[in-house]
Write a structure and sequence with these properties.
Elements: H1 2-20, H2 28-51, H3 62-87, H4 89-107, H5 115-120, H6 124-171, H7 187-215, E1 228-229, E2 232-233, E3 243-246, E4 250-252, E5 255-257, E6 262-267, E7 274-279, E8 282-287, E9 291-292, H8 298-305
Antiparallel strand pairs: 1-2, 3-6, 3-9, 4-5, 6-7, 7-8
């Protein structure tokens, strides 16, 4: 019995180390490989729990330790799947890079343009201008990536703080509070628990202050996803006009926009790639990548205050 218990304890220690030492990478393959390892570890922990159902082990702390490890591994797997959603965006950029390369190679063929056009038209300057425009679009994506990252990080932090506050508050409810010890010798234990709760609440209070400051820099990224119809925001607490700024100087068939010029979005739900906006020349359809919704996200501010 003692030897078998020792073997199980060693397995528990091994699984516990693997659960605690989870390596969270950045790129998709690294995250996916670690998630697979955690899924395999979960199956091993469940198998161990099945072995611990033997009555001989029920009076030990082994079943509880195994349950705690299972909870940790499940949390690791959930965290890795969550982060994989971000890392999977690398595919979009690799596809874009492939499309750019394919376009370059295809247009480099002598057959890409009839010989008569080569003779009658000197397009070298135009070709350079088109590639310069594409390069500018690449620069603009950095703005949108930064805005998206700040938006998601802010809401992640809010979710994290709210979850911790909810858990701490639940721990203060009568059903969760253990009876006060009658022995005076147990008082230091209670004092340490209260001090730990207080320190955690102070930490969370500090984070809420930072969130309020961060909220003023968050832009309403959610409005880029078809959030404007008939000139007003939709699916928001209060409908209102949504303004955007041009991220570069741009000219189209019926408009001219200067970099930084402000326009009102009329509709971005019909076509996510081309938004209908009101310019100084009238209604025009503008590539969405060229527009930045620059006003602060009032809903983010409200959420930080709450």
């Amino acid at each position: 019995m003692a030897s078998s218990t020792k073997v199980l304890e060693n397995r528990l220690a091994e699984y516990e180390h693997k659960a605690r030492a989870v390596c969270i990478g950045v790129n998709h393959l690294a995250l996916d490989a670690e998630r697979v390892q955690q899924d395999e570890l979960l199956q091993k922990v469940k198998q161990l729990e099945a072995e611990l159902r033997d009555l001989a082990y029920q009076k030990t702390n082994l079943p509880q330790r195994a349950a705690d490890i299972r909870s940790d591994v499940k949390g690791n797997a959930a965290a890795l799947r969550y982060l994989e959603t971000i890392s999977q965006l690398e595919r979009s950029f690799t596809v874009l890079t492939e499309n750019v390369s394919e376009t370059s190679v295809q247009l480099s063929s002598p057959k890409a343009l009839p010989e008569s056009v080569h003779v009658k038209k000197e397009l070298s300057g135009n070709v350079e201008s088109c590639w310069n425009y594409v390069a500018q679009l690449s620069r603009l994506t950095q703005v949108h990536i930064r805005n998206a990252a700040e938006y998601q990080q802010f809401h992640h932090n809010v979710n994290e703080v709210e979850a911790n506050l909810s858990r701490r508050l639940k721990m203060t409810q009568p059903d969760y509070v253990r009876p006060l010890p009658e022995e005076i010798s147990s008082a230091p234990i209670l004092a340490n628990e209260l001090r730990e709760h207080l320190n955690h609440f102070i930490h969370l209070w500090g984070r809420t202050g930072q969130l309020l400051e961060d909220s003023r820099r968050v832009v309403p990224v959610h409005l880029r996803l078809g959030g404007v119809q008939n000139g007003l925001s939709v699916n928001t607490e209060s409908k209102g006009a949504v303004m955007a700024r041009a991220l570069l100087t741009l000219a189209g068939p019926n408009y001219e926009l200067a970099e930084g010029e402000e326009v009102r979005i009329i509709n971005n739900s019909d076509d996510p790639h081309f938004w209908k906006v009101h310019t100084s020349s009238g209604i025009a359809e503008i590539p969405s990548v060229c527009l930045w919704i620059s006003d602060p996200d009032l809903e983010a501010v409200k959420r930080a205050i709450k």
